[in-house]
Structure formats: structure tokens, C-alpha cells
Amino acid sequence: VPGMLYISRSCGASNLLRIKRSSFSHNPLIEIYKPLRTRIESCLRDGSTKYFDFAVIGSGVAGLRYALEVAKHGTVAVITKAEPHESNTNYAQGGVSAVLCPSDSVESHMQDTIIAGAYLCDEETVKSSISSLAHVQVVCTEGPDRIRELIAMGASFDHGEDGNLHLAREGGHSHRRIVHAADMTGREIERALLEAVLNDPNIYVFQHHFAIDLLTSQDGSETVCHGVDILNTETKEVIRFISKVTLLASGGVGHIYPTTTNPPVATGDGMAMAHRAQAVISNMEFVQFHPTALADEGLPISPTKTRENAFLITEAVRGDGGILYNLDMQRFMPFYDERAELAPRDVVARGIDDQLKKRNEKYVLLDISHKPREKILSHFPNIAAECLRYGLDITSQPIPVVPAAHYMCGGVRAGLQGETNVCCLYVAGEVACTGLHGANRLASNSLLEALVFARRAVQPSIDRMKSSLLDRCASDCWDRPVYPTSLGTSVLEKIVRRTREVRKELQLIMWKYVGIVRSTIRLKTAEQRIGELELEWEAYLFQQGWEPTMVGLEACEMRNLFCCAKLVVSSALARHESRGLHYTIDFPNLEESKRLPTIIFPCSTPMDSTWSSRQVHKQIC
Amino acid sequence: MAKNLGRLFSLVMGLSEPKLGLSTARSVSVNSARRLICSSATRQQGSPKSQGEAISETQEKIQSEKEQDNGDGDGDGEDEGDEPDLNKETGEVGGPRGPEPTRYGDWERNGRCYDF
């Protein structure tokens, strides 16, 4: 396809990006003929199938916002792998950006977004990235209405003394436009949406339900989504959800890295399932890191439990005079940027990462101890307290820090209505790649993107749902995944233990070879090592008696992490320039001709593929 | 600060919905929230004895900083009277005390960055 920077393992790719506009008038599965009596019996035999008009995978802001709208037109299942509030949304504490001040403008918000995204440089070059510009425009234009709706739903944001919304100004924004609720905006939005969802009689929330794979079929050249297979992680039961429309809103993938701000649920399940379902994935090389998370390995007393999500040390520490040193107490930032510690966050992150990789070390030091003790304790009591718990006094010792993975700009490629190249499958939120963030996300744009695209996917979903016929025997058309009870507890425990080790090994490979400062040779090493690790792990599984249709939480998360890690590496290898969050020493400059998204097409007939790249169920009719 | 604690408590109550069987204790899962609820009640725990007095001095300072932040309003330039919740520096009602949380780009609270 001209004008696209892409990698493809596939055969015919020409059809994959065009979204079919014609209405889906019949379900091909109905054409399977069976005598009526047999059909009814075979349908009733298996009770663990549920039928919904809409299935929503994920319970963050995107999933819940969408659910509340489509629930006015049909039944909705909200499927969430842990407790409903466990989502990246809940940890997005900063704010939501929107043009809500008379002196601000949509154009200004758009421009800030585009500049941050390192995506477009001027009006004339807009045409070849036209889809991204349109995405930027709709988000910035529709933002204010989405915020007002949230307020109408009961979300409570901070106000100024004049009674209007208090708007903060965050790095990268040229106007005050961040709406927030103290230091828990995401949590407040999540709370308000969850309350509305729980009160809606048409919405059924299934918590501790883990999505395994999307149920898909081929209708000519088009892939169609019919629902999703789920594992109830509490009862170990596999349940098949058949739905006319599915929204993937499963969030991020921070846990491909060892240090991340994301909660444990963020294992890239949605991106992996979509890739296995033949959806197009885009821009996975753009991973956002915060430069200075507290590095537990550098603390005098090791925490007894591994931290689930990173403790980030604010940029204000550097702003107030904190200095970065490597473990030889050399101040290194001046070598990378004349602004030294006051360089932009991404530059600092690169400097730290470079030092760590060159010197093969685990953390660097951020020293504020040269400042007056009183000032340190009055400005940063949170850091002081946390470090003190582990024997570190920041008024006299430097703080060990390491970059933490925070946000994935890439994901499942979405059109302006949140549609994907898979019929009846929509995406919204961090799992989607709408093109808004480009090569680097502007602060506070992620909650906004989730709100806007969740809302935009509503009408097309309703239209699609209304023109779909539900075949109650569809559920028989794929093999059923099974929980491996037959292997016995002790074998299962061994498998879980080994899987946990493998996850740590994968994270180390990703951090070591696919970090912030990249190189072709490191990326190729990563590709090889990840491939080997994956084969080794799968061999172990199958050696223990695991069968391809078996599913368990840890194993499924692991296969999703492998899948996403490989997507990140392939995307990074494909981009022969440095742009935004993707920096590679082999192509250290921006190349105008490469200002295009990275697209990964699925492979329609995978050869020598691994368990992580295939759907668990085979289509049997 | 008191308002934030109030909001957190209503969050905890609101999330314990019988329909889902959510347990109250697990509902508020963010570390900073737990710290907010616990900090005014307990002293810091877990520092090694060998660091002795310097540590306990620092602990007291942190404790008093957190208590100040909790609602005294002394000496940080705020009005008492009509708008006890107003932060003069940022013009915000009901928000965090002290300087603008985003002044250096990320969102910070007492040193911890909670978003960016």
C-alpha cells in the first residue's frame, strides 16, 4: 500500500485496511444445515455460553463510557479481569485535557498535540498523514462536550474561586486546560462511571473474567468478530460470550518492562488478541517512560514484596536543583544536553538509559541532599517517607532511580469511529492507536482520547448491532478452551512458577535491548532472545502435558506479553529514523519521508507460528 | 485535605456494592490513598535502629509537614475565614495545598509524581 511504512508477514494485504461500509446483512454461520431437533439439542447441551448485544472488554474509562451509551439500545456485558476499578484509568491521576477556557482554542490544543507527537511538521505535509490529523481534530473538538457529560454523570472536578472549573497547565500545553480532581482524576472519573454502570439494568459486569481470544470467522476476505472466549479466574470455568458487537478497551501493556507505573492487569491482552484475530496493529515502538522511578534495587533495605507499580520521583526534584549521577558519582546529563537536569523529560530519560546500558548498571542516582534539609522535607515529604521506610535518608543520601514504562502510544489501528479492520470489532482507549498521540503523547490527552473514541464508536456499534442476526448455534463453531484441571495441582503450580520466571526474563530482555535508546543490533538481539525464550517456555508447557486449547491466567498473560513484546520489537526495527519516543542510534535523526505510522499486518496463514500467535480455539465449522 | 479524605471515604463506601461483591478493604487500591488515610494516625515504621536519632528527627519533620498539609493552614499564605479550601498560589478550591502541582511538567504531590 503506497504511503505506508509497514512490515508484513502476509500474503494479500490490500484488503486489510479498507473498512467495509456495506451492512452486514446475514450471518454466514446460519447457513450450516442441521435437522431442527439436533440443532436445538446441540445448542442446549453446553450451558456456558452467554449472549449479549454488546461485549466490552475492559472496565476503564473507555469501556465504561461506551457501555453506558450502548446500554440504551441493547444488553451489554462488561468483562474485566480483576476488580472493575483496576485499570490504567484508575492510575491516571493527573487530569483530562480539554478546551474549556474562552481564551483557549481547539486549534491551540491540536497544535500542542501535533508538536508533542512529532508527527506532522506543517500544513502541506498534512495530506499524507490525513487520518491522524482528522483524529487530532475530532478529539480536541469533542473533548469539552465529553467533559461536560462526565460532570453531568456525577464526576466532581476541582474549581477555582470564581466557581469555574480549575484548569491546570501541564508540560507541553500552551494554555491552561487540564481538568482534574485533586490528585485522583482518573479515580474520580472511574468512580463516577462505575456507579452509573452498576445502576444500569442493561449492563452486566463480569469481574475476574479474563478474555482469552476473540471469536472470529472469515466472510470472504473479511474477518468478522462474533464475541470472545473468557476464563472465569475464580471458578476456572471457560465461558463463551457471543455478541453482535465487541469493544476492546483493555488498556496498556506496561508489564513487558520490569519497572512500570501500570497496575498488574496491564499485560497487553487486547493488543495480542486483536493481532491474533487479524486486526492491524500500529506504532508499537512508541513507548512512553518516566525518567525517574524509585529503584528498589538501590535501597539499603530491600522491599519484602515486589512493588506492583512504580513510585515516580517528580521532575520537581530536578527542577529544585536535584542532580543526576551515575554510580561512579559522575554527573552525566551535561554530556547529553546543555540544559543538563532541566532538559525535557524524554531527553533526561534517554540520558539515564544510555548511562545504564553503557555501564551495565541497574539505576542512577538523583541527589538533592545538597539542598537545605528543611526545604527537602517540606517540599518532598512523600519521597522522604518512602525512602526512609527502606533505610534511605534523602537529606543526606542520593535517591536510586530508573526509568519506568508508563504509556503505550501504539495499539490496534482505529478509524475515526473506533472501527478496526475486523468487522464488528471496535477499539477505544490505550489499546487503540488512533493516531492522536503520534510518536509521543501530550500530557492528559489519554483520558480524553478514551472518552472521545468510546463515544464515537457508539453509533456505528448500534447500527451494526441492529443489522446483525444472532445465531444461537454460533457458539458451537469453535473448539472450546479448557482449564487444565487434568494436569493436577502440583504440575499447574510448577507451570505457574516457571511462567513467572519467564515473565521476569522477558522483562529484562525488553529493558536491556528495547529500552529508550535503541540500536539495530540490540533490537535484533531482542528479537532472537525473545523468540528463543518463547519457544523454550512453550516447550516446557507442552512437556508438562499442556495442550494448545488449555488456558490459565498466568499462561495466557504470558502469551500476550510475548505477542506484544514481539510487536514492539518488529515496529522498532521497521522505523529507520528517530522520532518522538523512538530513538535509535543507527538512525538518530528525524526523516521527513518517514513521518508515517508503522503498520503491522497480520499473517493470514501463519507458518511455524508459536502458541502466542495463534488463537486458542480452532474454527470447526 | 479533609475534603479529600472525605472523598476517599465515600469512594470506599460507594465501591462496596453487593451486586459485585466488592470488598471494602480492597476497593481503595492506590498506595497514595492508603498513605493519606494512615499518615495522620500512625508514625513511620520500619527504619533501622542503627541510624538512630537522625532518623527519628526526620520522621518527626515529615509527620509535621503532613499534618500541616492536612489542614492547619499556618504559615503557607492561605486565607482563613470565608474560603478555607482556597489555595492562593493556584487559585484552586478544594485542591492540593502548596505550589502548582504541574510547575515542572509532571503532576506532583509532596514529591511523588502521580501522572504526566
From TrEMBL, chain A:
Q: InterPro entries under this entry?
A: FAD-dep_OxRdtase_2_FAD-bd, FAD/NAD-bd_sf, Fum_R/Succ_DH_flav-like_C_sf, Fum_Rdtase/Succ_DH_flav-like_C, NadB, Succ_DH/fumarate_Rdtase_cat_sf
Q: State the EC number(s).
A: 1.4.3.16
Q: Known NCBIfam families for this protein? A: nadB
Which pathway does the protein contribute to?
Answer: Cofactor biosynthesis; NAD(+) biosynthesis; iminoaspartate from L-aspartate (oxidase route): step 1/1
UniProt domain Fumarate reductase/succinate dehydrogenase flavoprotein-like C-terminal: residue ranges? 503-591
Molecular function per GO: L-aspartate oxidase activity
Q: Name one GO cellular component term.
A: chloroplast
- Identify the keywords attached in UniProt to this record, alphabetized: FAD, Flavoprotein, Oxidoreductase, Pyridine nucleotide biosynthesis
Which cofactors are reported in the record for this sequence?
A: FAD
The organism of origin for this protein: Escallonia herrerae
Q: Which reaction does it catalyse?
A: L-aspartate + O2 = iminosuccinate + H2O2
- Ranges for domain FAD-dependent oxidoreductase 2 FAD-binding come to 53-447
Top-level EC class, please? oxidoreductase
Any idea where this protein resides?
Plastid, Chloroplast
User: Where primarily located?
Assistant: plastid
- Full protein name: L-aspartate oxidase
TrEMBL record, chain B:
Q: Which GO BP terms, alphabetically?
A: mitochondrial respiratory chain complex II assembly
Here the segments flagged for biased composition (Polar residues) are: 39-50
A GO CC term attached to the entry: mitochondrion
- Cross-referenced Pfam families: DUF1674
What the entry lists under InterPro entries is as follows: SDHF4
The residue ranges flagged as biased composition, category Acidic residues, are: 70-84
Record's compositionally biased regions (Basic and acidic residues): 58-69, 103-116
Positions of the UniProt region annotated as Disordered:
39-116
Q: Which family does it belong to?
A: Belongs to the SDHAF4 family.
Q: What is this protein called?
A: Succinate dehydrogenase assembly factor 4, mitochondrial
Lineage, uppermost ranks: Eukaryota, Viridiplantae, Streptophyta, Embryophyta, Tracheophyta
